Task: structure prediction
Amino acid sequence: MDIAVRNLRDRLRGALIAAAATPMTTAGEVDLDVVSRYLTGLVADGVTGLAVLAHTGRGPYLAPDVRAGVIERAVALGVPVLVGIGGGPPSGPSGAVAQARVAAELGADGVLVFPSDGDRLALHEEVWRAARLPMIAFDLYTRPCPTGTLRDLLAHPGVAGLKTALLSDAMGCQRAITLTRQADRLAITGEDRMFGPSLLWGAEAALVGIAAASVGVTAAVLEAYAGKDLRAFEEASGRLDRLAQVTFTEPMEGYVQRMLWLAAAEGRVPGSHAHDPYGPPLPEEERAGVVATTR
Result:
């Protein structure tokens, strides 16, 4: 493992990394000052790392200049910053490679590599050669990673860890965490619907969209798990599960809008910038139920 990769792995152990949303208007316009205030608030409330332009942040849809501005605002906060790369146009590995280079130039600490339909190991190798930024591999429920490929990725010298977000595949999540730890990489839970169990299965850090708002709910689970109070862990996990049940539900792509609703209700973003134009339309009456859960 490369020394920079090892250092990031160790730095992220125990971290709560928010898969941050990108506040925007119904037309998809991004105000970087709004982004800066939003990210600052997440850190102030207990997030110890930021993953920007990932799935929750709709990174694959954003223009290069907007992406660069978001990265700059995140890096300025002084916490570890991971940047989502790939997952959309320009098609093929070239898009992810170019995005990784920009992330490195702007001071990001690492990249979260979106799953691809092609040769995943080759993609990670191209990104590594181009940017030399530590990589977090990504096992996502829409494109679960075959076990053999997962082993190969975890043996790559540029891979610091694996984020698993398999949604409801408990056995797949357990297998991925086990393989990650066997490879001496960082097992990162992205399991918003299996958060507490994934910690019990061996996850050592969290990178979750549910921390895009209501940060304290997620942080409390990690804090209780690190302590000795089983009842506190049970209660904190229950609160997070109740929130996840109304935010990470069908249609699943609607979770981004639901988290933005919560961010607006908490005063993190103005209502004018609490929209996800890239997700499915949701009935307005659902909003009240989501917000009520946090109260």
In short: The chain has twelve helices and eight strands.
